[in-house]
Write a structure and sequence with these properties.
Fumarylacetoacetate hydrolase, domain 2; eleven-stranded mixed beta sheet; 6 helices; catalytic activity; 2-keto-4-pentenoate hydratase/2-oxohepta-3-ene-1,7-dioic acid hydratase (Catechol pathway); metal ion binding; Fumarylacetoacetase-like_C; FAH
């Protein structure tokens, strides 16, 4: 099953790639608000499994918003791929990798224009993103997928000067400029994949591949992350989890490379879709 946020309304995406309005199809049983579906995720899944979808309407990707546009929490994981830890000059974390947040004001949909900070060093980090679909606190790893509504594509865009400035790093601040957390285009349920723990992901700049990887290479998988995080704090329906990025970021290159005026960044996770960001000064 695929859902999306189309012009601020919750829609189901048909097998033909058209959109069906959930509020209209359910005759008001479910709200048009995309965020409101997550606290009722089990009920929604049961209804959607038997709903007879109409033909749906075509739409433009530019009208899509973030699948979970107003989460209580955005949690992000650093150094969760061995090759990315190496290119960043860090040892592989022993235990839980670094955890930070991207502030909710940075969250956007899949197709956007992003302003580059002045005199910055803005980097790219494609990631698989999980959205929580049931309250999770002290969840066992073997049960963790039961608490996931679905998966989407994310970019953890990072302003490295801000992130690494000062006596201690400012990870959350450097990763939270406006537009620095695009997600989408759809939320796809785990049962839609042959193996939700092994998905190809990557990104390109102006058609040049810069990152490629597979989520099977994550040091801590989605279920392990949910188990480890929920051992410390409750995860709420609609919360967003950025799971980490593979090697190929600008920081780790020699010479280092940063996003520039006019660049187009295209990011994907196979089976979900792509993000498209255009950068400008």
């Amino acid at each position: 099953m695929r859902i999306a946020n189309l012009s601020g309304r919750l829609v189901l995406i048909t097998e033909h790639g058209t959109a069906v309005d959930v509020e209209q199809l359910s005759e008001g049983r479910f709200s048009a608000d995309p965020q409101a579906v997550y606290p009722r995720w089990a009920e929604f899944r049961a209804w959607a499994a038997t709903a007879e979808l109409a033909d749906g309407v075509p739409f433009s990707a530019t009208d899509l918003g973030a699948p979970a546009p107003a989460p209580r929490q955005i949690l992000a994981i650093g150094l969760n791929y061995r090759d990315h830890a190496a290119e960043s000059g860090f040892a592989v974390p022993d235990g839980l990798p670094p955890v930070f947040t991207k502030f909710v004001s940075s969250l956007t949909g899949p197709v956007t224009d992003v302003a580059l900070p002045a005199d910055g060093q803005t980097d790219w980090e494609v990631e698989l993103v999980a959205v929580i679909g049931a309250p999770a606190y002290r969840v066992a790893e073997e049960n963790a997928w039961d608490h996931v509504a679905g998966l989407t594509v994310g970019q953890d865009i990072s302003e490295r000067r801000t992130q690494l400035a000062g006596p201690v790093p400012q990870f959350s601040l450097g990763k939270s400029y406006p537009g620095f957390a695009p997600t989408g285009p759809y939320l796809v349920t785990a049962d839609s994949f042959d193996d939700p723990d092994d998905l190809a992901l990557g990104c390109s700049i102006n058609g040049e591949d810069v990152q490629k990887g597979r989520t099977s290479e994550l040091l801590l998988s989605v279920p392990v992350l949910i188990a480890r995080l929920s051992a410390v704090l409750p995860l709420s329906p609609g919360d967003i989890l950025f799971t980490g990025t593979p090697a190929g970021v600008g920081l780790g290159r020699k010479p280092q490379r940063w996003l520039a005026d006019g660049d187009e960044l295209v990011s994907y996770v196979t089976g979900i879709g792509e993000l498209r960001q255009r950068f400008h000064i």
